[in-house]
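Journal club side-thread
Mid-discussion, someone asked how the predicted structure for our own chain would compare to the paper's figures. Pasting it here so we can look after the session.
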Amino acid sequence: MHGPVLLSWLLALLTAATGTICLARLRRPVARHPGRGSDAAEAAMGLGTAAMIVSGDRLPAPLWVALFALLGAVSLAAAVGHRGGPGDGPGHRLHHAVGAAAMAYMALARPGRAAHPGMVMTMGWPALTGALLLYFGGYALWTGSRLLTADGTGGAAPGGPVPQACRLAMGVGMFAMLLAM
């Protein structure tokens, strides 16, 4: 990631912690855990994002693009086929696909990386970056507002406040990474 080193490490810690929490949630029994598909996607996204931040330019961009494109394709297929429980609907799966596409885009548009023929130009496309900033900024605000309910359970959010807090952390992390591009 481009930007201050402290910000990079804080984002790596945030996304790694979020991915680890989602990974731990996968160990819960299926009957008590309706959003297993979302937790699996969020664990992969969080841990993959942390690895991408920490590795910097040591691993090639096409590797990250392939990994996040695979995650996006699986999320998109799950959204279209709607294979998921109540906490794992098609809208949330589409969000995972957008997040994976944004990570692939950031891998291609990393500052300091030499431009490659046929790939996104270095520093990305300002209009796309702006659209993604609006999306993830709005998503973080919306998710954060769902945490601020009177009863503290996350309102109508399946699974309570922990999944909502993880989604908020990932939304803020994505926003910060896009802002640092």
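Post-session note: The CA atoms of residues 139 and 171 lie 6 Å apart.
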